[in-house]
Amino acid sequence: MGNLSVGKADSIPTRPKRPLKPILSDAKNVPRRRIGKSHKGRIALLHAIAHIELNAIDLAWDLIARFSNPSLPNDFYSDWLEVAVDEARHFTLVSKRLSELNTAYGDFAAHDGLWEAAIDTKDNLVSRLAIIPLVMEARGLDVTPGMISKFRAVKDYRSADILDIIYSEEIKHVKVGYSWFMFACASMGLEPKNTWQECLKKFYKGNLKPPFNIKARNLADLPQSWYI
Ligand SMILES: [Fe+2]
After folding, report:
1. Which of 108, 119, 190, 200 has its CA 20 to 30 A from that of 131?
2. Ligand 1 centroid to 182 CA: how many Å?
3. Residue 92 lies in a domain
């Protein structure tokens, strides 16, 4: 951040600029993401991960721009800037892997759940942090180790290694999300656990799905009593 001063952005677009492809579609039109010996399911999964990573870049920048406020400490901006840089690296790693498998980001339909959640929570920093890092990204921590094992089982070590990098850095991102959620609650006089659970009821369709990766969630500081 250096000595840059923080202003307040006037108009933040609801949606970021995106390439013409992938076409955004219902989950039912997105190819099945099954990790097997054939390339097809693995490519579909890697494509879905690339789409998540692209969203994650935009989500970090959206947080910085939409919720900029002189009352937030500079660390808020530098933390999310670091997240944006990590997410850009993740997107690049997965995109390169797709090209090694003779395909590219944009070749398949993708679903828009992450950005829909961003739109739902665009008016409130507490809600945004409650849902995106503490629900959506935490869910990533639950499912990624299983994907890594499956990639290794079919000897796709390149994809497994990329997911290993993403997994360890996503723990850090959830931790950053948790710490700023706690900060935002404290500065508004809100009790964090109840506030998170209220946000979940209001903005998250469906229930949290066990099994939870308690080890990773603990590393990210997420209290078990919130989600179990
Ligand atoms: Fe990521």
Report:
1. 108
2. 22
3. yes
- Residue 1 resides in a domain: no
- CATH number of domain containing 52: 1.20.1260
In SS3 terms, 83-108 reads as HHHHHHHHHHHHHHHHHHCCCCCCCC
- What are the tens digits of pLDDT across the range 59-74? 999 999 999 988 899 9
pLDDT of 158 > 80? The answer is yes
Domain membership of residue 188 (yes or no) is yes
**Ligand 1 centre distance from Cα of residue 53 (Å):** 5
Q: Domain containing 83: what range?
A: 27-227
Separation of alpha carbons 188 and 98, rounded Å: 44
**C-alpha 90 – ligand 1 centre gap (Å):** 5
Phi and psi angles of residue 25, each rounded to the nearest 5 degrees, phi first: -150, 170
Please give the Cα distance from 56 to 182 (Å, whole number).
21
Would you say residue 101 lies in a domain?
yes
pLDDT higher than threshold 90 for residue 40? no
CA of 56 to the centre of ligand 1 (A): 6
The tally of domains found in the chain comes to 1
Instruction: Say what the pLDDT of residue 34 is.
Output: 78
Distance 73 CA to ligand 1 centre (A): 24
